[in-house]
Amino acid sequence: MTQPTLAVVLSSGGLDSTTVLAMAAANGYELHSLSFFYGQRHHCELRAAETVAAAMGVKTHRVARIDLQSIGGSALTDDIAVPKDRRRDPVDDGIPVTYVPARNTIFLSYALAWAEVLGAWDIFIGVNAVDYSGYPDCRPEYIQAFETLANLATKAAVEDKGRFRIHTPLIDLTKAQIIRAGTALGVDYQMTHSCYDPDPSDLACGRCDSCRLRKRGFSEAGLADPTRYTPGQHITS
Fold first, then answer.
1. Quick one: DSSP state of residue 122?
2. What are residue 161's phi and psi, to 5 degrees?
3. Which residues contact 231 (CB under 8 A, 6 or more apart)?
4. Which among 197, 192, 194 is positioned nearest to 77, based on CA atoms?
């Protein structure tokens, strides 16, 4: 029997990473998803990631625990207000305080370690360099540099057993294109979570950069937005 091709997919429970899971599945990979309890102020994204893993037939879903809250420096981990209702387009307004220092580097390092243990050579991450919030670790040059590192820093690669590949299928897509692609693959976006500052009932604020990008994506895709927003916030853009 032919052995399946394994992939480690970073899964936040959000729109982008869930679309990437669907893409990897459509390409025949056996899915192993990895999420993080990293000291983020809100945990509804982890609940979403568990729901996504169960719905999408993930072989193994793991949640790694690390403490980025002790480092701070981000509105997602520290006592810093999440920006709301910014007048400028979030894509054009520089690197916001929701940037978590070195987060993707840390996440990819964990994914790399797990991939080496599993015997998987393919790692998927839902970074995007078009409709994103200006994060430096979402750029193509960063991903290329990390892939080079991965193949210099691991026993499996140094012993020529294979070559690690970092897949970024969304990197050149707009949010609308991502949503259309996921919809075509049957993704139910109602189970995903994107908001940086949800209320105690896990309702999205509708006002942070992530909510605004998500709403604009559904609007430009010509599709209904299934997100559950705080009452009165659904029309904010």
1. E
2. -80, -15
3. none
4. 197
pTM for the full predicted model? 0.94
- Secondary structure (3-state) at 9: strand
Tens of pLDDT along 93-139? Answer: 678 899 999 999 999 999 999 999 999 999 999 999 876 667 899 99
Give domain 5-221's CATH number out of 3.40.50.10840, 1.10.10.10, 3.40.50.2300, 3.40.50.620: 3.40.50.620
Tokens of 115: 């991939």
| DSSP string across 11-54 | --SSHHHHHHHHHHHHTTEEEEEEEEE-S-S--HHHHHHHHHHH
Alpha-carbon distances of 174 from 74, 127, 216, 218, 231, rounded to whole Å: 25, 11, 10, 11, 27
Are 225 and 218 contacting, i.e. CB atoms less than 8 angstroms apart?
yes
- pLDDT tens digits along 135-192: 899 999 999 999 999 999 999 999 999 999 999 999 999 999 999 999 999 999 999 9
Question: Residues 101, 73: contact at Cβ < 8 Å?
Answer: yes
